Task: inverse folding
């Protein structure tokens, strides 16, 4: 009778039973940490690019709402001040962006840029008034020259080149002082009271929140990104040749110091200035 002897391999003392040693775990954690540190700048940049894209979309939405407002109001744009109200009132009427709710803009975040560092301070709401001294409620400002050159009515006094004439843009400053954000009642000033001794990107409406750029929308609906850092580094002038060729009355008629966006084919106004309604 033949017997078969089954041999069972002996387990050597000290052999592994699976799993990782402490050294291996620390090595994996170290490599993972290094990879995360390498990828973090790319992730942050992607997030900033996404915020910039959302901001540009919101700017277009506000521009669309303004266009529809104009169609319903014989060409008039909503103004900050209601002529029938008293400036001595403790509560001012809703600014131009407030007058777009709820008929033309149903979502309050549409007037907020996600990259706006003061976005948490902005108090937006349909038809809400704005108490005196309260922060402005929009990340976007309207071209203040429109009130001078176009008298607020873009049907009666339309610029010669609406695709190149600024309507809206990202607006600063990017600082909060005593819980308040100064946004010039939602209007973009052409000079910002610029003084090289005091002004800077953080103090100016000319913010650099999109990688040193701002988003700009023209009256004709063209959206552009404009680099702003260089503008704040140079002293502004009252005359720019390229700006004057574009029909800028601040150059040709008034010789007022102003920021020039002419390299991007953007102008504060194109064509004649209307002094009467």
Result:
């Amino acid at each position: 009778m033949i017997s078969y002897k089954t041999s069972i391999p002996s387990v050597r003392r000290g052999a592994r039973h699976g799993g990782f040693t402490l050294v291996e775990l620390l090595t994996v954690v170290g490599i993972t940490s290094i990879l995360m540190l390498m990828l973090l700048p790319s992730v942050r940049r992607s997030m900033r690019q996404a915020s910039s894209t959302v901001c540009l979309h919101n700017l277009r939405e506000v521009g669309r709402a303004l266009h529809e407002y104009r169609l319903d109001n014989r060409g008039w744009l909503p103004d900050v001040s209601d002529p029938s109200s008293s400036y001595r009132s403790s509560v001012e009427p809703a600014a131009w962006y407030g007058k777009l709710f709820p008929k033309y803009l149903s979502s309050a975040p549409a007037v907020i840029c996600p990259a706006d560092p003061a976005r948490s301070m902005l108090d937006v709401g349909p038809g809400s008034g704005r108490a005196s001294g309260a922060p402005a409620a929009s990340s976007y400002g309207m071209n203040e020259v429109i009130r001078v050159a176009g008298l607020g009515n873009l049907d009666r006094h339309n610029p010669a080149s609406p695709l190149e004439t600024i309507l809206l843009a990202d607006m600063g400053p990017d600082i909060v002082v005593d819980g308040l954000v100064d946004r010039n009642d939602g209007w973009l000033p052409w000079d910002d009271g610029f003084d090289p001794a005091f002004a800077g990107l953080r103090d100016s409406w000319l913010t650099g929140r999109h990688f040193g750029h701002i988003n700009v929308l023209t009256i004709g609906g063209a959206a552009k990104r404009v680099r702003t850092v260089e503008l704040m580094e140079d002293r502004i002038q009252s005359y720019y040749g390229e700006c004057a060729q574009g029909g800028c009355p601040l150059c040709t008629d008034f010789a007022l110091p102003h920021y020039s966006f002419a390299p991007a084919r953007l102008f504060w106004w194109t064509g004649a200035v209307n002094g009467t309604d």
